[in-house]
Structure formats: structure tokens, C-alpha cells
Amino acid sequence: KRELGVIDFGDQIELALRIVDDHPDVAKQYRDRFDVVLLDEYQDTNVAQARLMAGVFGGGHPVTAVGDPDQNIYAWRGASLFNLLEFPRQFRRADGTEAVKLPLYTNFRSGARILEAADVLIGQLPAHQRPDPEKRLVPWEENGPGQVHVARISDEIQEAAWVAVRMLRDHQHADC
Predict the structure, then answer these.
(1) Contact present, 94 and 57 (Cβ < 8 Å)
(2) Residues 77-104: tens digit of each pLDDT
(3) What is the 3-state secondary structure (H, E, C) of 113-158?
(4) What pLDDT shows up at residue 99?
(5) Do 117 and 148 form a contact (C-beta atoms < 8 A)?
(6) What's the mean pLDDT in 23-51?
């Protein structure tokens, strides 16, 4: 990579972290620029990303992280559930106390049937493997019941075609 003069995502994070560590004035400029920070889908961050965010916005700056420990599906690319679980300690309040954890159980994306199906699937996991095993998401009523379809599909190309046909059919029925 060095011979080609290119960097990848991991390099970008590492270089940014080095800048923040070596030049505290850079982090201060970002804190001055952003009064508050929202870190969405925080369960999908890797350890280096969390260190970078803490290096820039830690130490009492107003930071909120949103994440669902049951949606930690990117461990294969380095995402660490540890970041979400450690957030209250890593991003302490200005007085040094741990950040407050506020549960959000209303799901604004999915209909009731979809959440019921998700609860059935995730219910198969042993309780000790879930940070909040009693959690049950509540659907936002405006989303309606939603649809759940089960299909056995041979590969990702066939899956994409199956989804496309379903979407077209649903769209055509909605126009009627």
C-alpha cells in the first residue's frame, strides 16, 4: 500500500487516531465545532473507531450513542459489542460519573410481525449471550403489522431477484 501511495479504512482510522493523540488542539477544534455528538449504530464500531471518538469527544463532551446489542452483526469486520457496553465508562460526564444508559424499546422501523419473528429467532440464543435477555421490542403502531416471508434461496443473486419481484408486486398492489 505504501509503495502505491494508498490507504484503506483501517489506515484512515489509525492515522486520524495518531493525529488526535499527537495534536490535542485538533481534537479541541472538533469539540469547539460540534456542541453535541450522536454516534448512531454504535454496536457496529470497531475498537479503533471507539478510541478515536473517545480521543476527540471524550472527557465530558456531550455525546450520545445509539445501538442495539442484539444487532451486533459486523464482528466479522471488526465491530465490537464491547464499545456499546463500555460507552458509559468510556464517555463519562463532565463531572466524571458514568454516562447514563437509557433503554429504547420502541422500534420505529419494523411492523409488529417482523418484531415477533425477530424475537422468535433471537430467543434461541442462551440468555448469558445477550446483554439484555428480557428485552422485547415494541412496534410503533403507525408501521402496521408488516410482512414476514420465509424462503429458501440458493445464492445472493437469486435472493436479490426474489426481493426485487416481491417489491415490484407490493408496489403494484399499493398503486391499485
Answers:
(1) no
(2) 899 989 999 999 999 999 999 999 988 8
(3) HHHHHHHHHHCCCCHHHCCCCCCCCEECHHHCCCCCCCCCCCCHHH
(4) 95
(5) yes
(6) 95
Question: For the chain, what is the mean pLDDT?
Answer: 91
Alpha carbon distance 79, 64 (integer Å): 18
139 contacts 110 by C-beta, under 8 angstroms: yes
For residue 176, pLDDT beyond 80: no
Q: Given the DSSP bridges, would you call strands 106-107 and 138-139 parallel, antiparallel or unpaired?
A: parallel
Long-range CB pairs of 134-140, under 8 A, 24+ apart, other chains included: 135/70, 135/103, 135/105, 136/105, 137/105, 137/106, 137/107, 137/110, 138/105, 138/106, 138/107, 139/106, 139/107, 139/110, 139/111, 139/112, 139/114, 139/115, 140/106, 140/107, 140/108
What span, in angstroms and rounded, lies between the C-alpha atoms of 46 and 2?
23
